[in-house]
Predict the 3D structure of the following.
Amino acid sequence: MVRGSTTGRVSRAPSWVPVAAWGFGLVAVGLGAAAIVAVQADALSRVLGALSVAAGLGALGWGAAGLWLARTPAPRVAVVGLFVGTSVAVALLATAPGRASILAVALMLALGVTVACGVVRGMRHPSPRSNLWGLVGAAALVTLVVVPALGVCQGAALLDADGTVLPVVTHDGH
């Protein structure tokens, strides 16, 4: 083996990292969908929304692959994907018609930093094995913070130009 070679070394992040990546992905998909269907969405908002959805689906797939393989797949690509996803989310805040939720973007940023730190930790100090209780705890925590963020994504999509929330009209009886 050549000195400095890392071919025999497996990167294994802690078991909570894929679950946190799922939270990141869910919020990214929610932000993207809200930007695409927002009341006053323009072409830029829709393009950024589609990029956010793509980044979110990538994070969901990466988290599933990490649990399936019991190791961290493509750790450097994952960190770059997290950076791109958070950059798109911040760009959505800058587009007025997109009406991105500040709470959802802040949560997405926090989850992205958390996942990136877990991935880097797994590259430097691989975790020996997955821990069931770590997965359960991570799933509970991610659920507690992601569900409210998804709710505010929809609320942000329904804002009118003057800041009022447009009513959702049902067509019962038609």
